[in-house]
Amino acid sequence: MTELIPAPRSLVAGPGGEVRLTAHSQLYADTATEGVGHWLRTVLRDATGLPLHEGRELDDTYGDGIGLQLDPALGPEEYRLVSDESGVLLEGGSAAGVFWGAQSLRQLLGPDAYRRAPLRRDRAWAVPYVTIEDAPRFRWRGLMLDVARHFMPKDGVLRYLDLMAAHKLNVFHFHLTDDQGWRIEIKRHPKLTEVGSWRARTKFGHRASPFWEEKPHGGYYTQDDIREIVAYAAERHISVVPEIDIPGHSQAAIAAYPELGNTDVIDTTSLSVWDNWGISLNVLAPTDNTLRFYEEVFEEVLELFPSEFIHVGGDECAKEQWKQSPTVQARIRELGLADEDELQSWFIRHFDNWLTARGRRLIGWDEILEGGSRAEGRAPVESDEEEGAKRPLDEVGAPPAGGWGSRQGIRAPGGETTKLGLAPGAAVSSWRGYQGGITAAQAGHDVVMCPEQQVYLDHRQDGGADEPVPIGYVRTLEDVYRFEPVPPQLTPDQARHVLGTQANVWTEVMEDHARVDYQTFPRLAAFAEVAWSALPAPAKRDFAGFEQRMTAHYKRLDALGVAYRPPTGPLPWQRRPGVLGRPIEGAPPNV
Q: Catalytic annotation on 228?
């Protein structure tokens, strides 16, 4: 039972023997770890049927108990687990460290420790004698879920958080708004959910597919739902980072409040929530009224989410309406800007400074380094987000001379900026490849590496004909396992700006949690090991050993009810014959 995922820094098996949990076993937690103790007692009671009485002190008299406590000598998320004749002692540098150690303890108890009720009352529960010393490689071990394209009810989100915790992931990037739906209640602007949370129908498969689901799709989270999700995540030492997309990906908001759009170009009162995939040309008008509206949105968001970072999207903003709008062109001249790209930069910097003034940090997709798509004068941006193929860098043009973000020194009023024109605390989600993250880190900005060529989990897992709704590049379990988040171009000082890494799940072709499960697992297990463990260089990683440990992990996923893709290929009910995807052939570009 020592096939742990993610792999710990050090695991030393004891000289035989095991700690047997019995009806008399106690679970002690010191004051700082009481929350972890409550969580561990609850899940183990459910799975084992054992009471695990609350211990008043750390007692090793009978050698069958579990003790949780802090050790200030350990790092913030570091833990040490010792199982020997005295029982199980789990120590951490913080409650978070103890919680991650509790995940390892649960794995040591075997797959049935993940069930919600005991299979038998007479079975033995034992932890082998072992010493584990462990700590994460990265502070940001993230997973993004897009609930705008396909809504996931609250219970599904809570389940998702449990699966994250089981893999020692600690940042939940919550993609709440897009062209196809607005999913969070904003009390000052109720139409965002009254109108913006529902679309009339939904494309089934890639946008070239002839199939439609001819019924309304939608839903949203009330503010109390959000509070519950945030609290549930916090109990599992997961930070929830909300994403409110601006200034593009905003048709749902414009459908709810037409005055937010470019009213001198189109009749925005005729718009509805978008029912297709890709990117809508309908983007926010950069007016003072729009800025005030979204400040009010973010005020409520800040009340609900205590996270250090707030994600503003900032990607794939189509510029066609801005180019045609006399109002927007007058705004560009008024602000002394060169073009629509600089206008997008100005828009993002407004909220960068607004968030900084309130003690938060802006994070956005890597377009915030340059003001959006570099494809000036081209046809409308037509990105295949549903493929995990938001347009690769080699399709939108190479970085300008001197690197991305070469428009240096443009400032929003009242704020200090770096040479990329962002507040010093702003961070970047590098999705189009490594280059955006390299440029940001070299300029002193923190970075989360999430290149779509590597860790977009909506990409297909195999090139076979049975792969359901095949999207994007083939990204196998081994491909994900060999992903390296830190580019070799960075110096050690620059590499410190890589906060960590994140896998992204875009749900255009994932209509329910079973489809999300299929696309996410088992690759999330490989990603979790990349994010947590101190692995060697990609070519030297022991993938065969990882596959061997996955044999036990598949049983854990079975106990959790995860509808993962089997190693031998999709099950008959997981296939989608005849539903069009959009596979991209060949190896992904190294950008």
A: no
